[in-house]
Specification:
The chain has 341 residues and is mainly α. Helices cover 86% and strands 0% of the residues.
Length: 341
């Protein structure tokens, strides 16, 4: 009798696994939006819990989701509008760099033509990316709709589902799942909240500095400085290289020195490295280098959505490693203890 029950339970698990696998394969194109919605809901959950004290769970989840999307949409429209309106001055700076690099010709150390061609290639990639984004607006809107629904559902049902899973797990797994959950929550907080905080700080520091230094595209450069905070190390470095080349192209040696010794430390390094590491250190126990690998690796594999999903997978990997080490340590200690006869 127990054997037949065991076979029945095993068959049930296999059938459920096949059903889940089939659903995952069919809806795989939407997996990124659904997982992204889950991560955003994790960050918004504390606000939802506070609002639930005054409203019903359904109304609270709907209001939090709507406000979050309105805020994100407004920020995106605002930044895109500013970048488009000031694209002429930014293009003037790029042209100045290009003209200067071409005038260098070829030399044993640097080929101005090659660097100029690289910049032209980058501009073409940006144009083609913008064109592909415009062509894919219907698909983007559909993905945004799925993301909206995912955030709402995870805010509404996420805590209950999590409690059901915890209650159904054996006691030995409860602690491990708690560790993984804590690591994921803290990582998502660090990615969303901390990145936004340091991005706003970099923008606020850059705007008056670029304006008083007389950069023609001071507003787009300030926005670029803020956005560069979402890609640690390489993002600020790209902005720094651009400023360095522009000042060289205009023969502004003072501007080169200011960019090296004032702009980079104050605007790019302090928010992006010093403040970010301190804020993240309070939430997660992952080394900044490992987190950077997660961000850069995620972007290279999954595109811009890897900015969020890359660190998520790194958090899962690190927490799983820590749990494995803890379990192996427990087994080793248990094996080394003397047995009483």
């Amino acid at each position: 009798m127990p054997d037949s029950k065991l076979r029945y339970d095993l068959l049930t698990i296999i059938i459920l696994f096949l059903i889940l696998s089939m659903v995952f394969i069919i809806y795989f194109p939407l997996a990124a939006a659904i997982v992204l919605g889950m991560t955003l809901a994790i960050v918004l959950q504390p606000f939802n819990q506070k609002l639930c004290e005054r409203l019903s769970p359904a109304k609270s989840a709907a209001m939090i989701t709507l406000l979050a999307f309105l805020l994100i949409g407004f920020a995106l429209v605002f930044m895109v509008n500013l970048l488009i309106s000031a694209s002429g001055s930014l293009f003037t700076m790029v042209q100045s760099i290009n003209t200067w690099l071409i005038s260098l010709g070829t030399s044993p150390l640097i080929s101005g033509y090659q660097v100029a061609n690289v910049i032209n290639s980058i501009m073409l990639v940006i144009k083609s990316t913008i064109q592909s984004v415009l062509n894919g607006i219907p698909e983007i809107l559909f993905g945004a709709f799925i993301l909206f629904l995912s955030v709402y559902l995870f805010l509404l049902k996420g805590p209950a589902i999590f409690r059901q899973i915890i209650d159904a797990l054996p006691g030995q797994l409860t602690g491990s799942v708690g560790k993984i959950t804590g690591m994921v929550v803290n990582t998502m907080y660090a990615i969303y909240i901390v990145s936004v905080e340091v991005a706003i700080l970099a923008f606020v520091l850059a705007l008056p500095l670029f304006y008083f230094l007389g950069y023609p595209a001071y507003l787009p450069l300030s926005i670029m400085s803020g956005l560069s905070m979402f890609i640690p190390l390489f993002g600020p470095l790209v902005v720094m290289v651009f400023l360095f080349l522009y000042n060289l192209s205009t023969g502004n040696i003072t501007g080169v020195l200011i960019a090296l010794f004032i702009i980079y430390p104050v605007v790019l390094w302090i928010p992006g490295s010093l403040i970010r590491s301190k804020l993240m250190g309070k939430r997660i126990g992952i080394h900044p280098v490992i987190m950077m690998i997660g961000i850069i690796g995620g972007i290279s594999v999954m595109g811009m959505i890897g900015l969020i999903l890359g660190p998520l997978f790194i958090a899962l990997l690190v927490s799983s490693y820590q749990i494995l080490i803890d379990q192996l340590t427990i087994i080793k200690n248990a094996a080394s203890e003397p047995t009483l006869e």
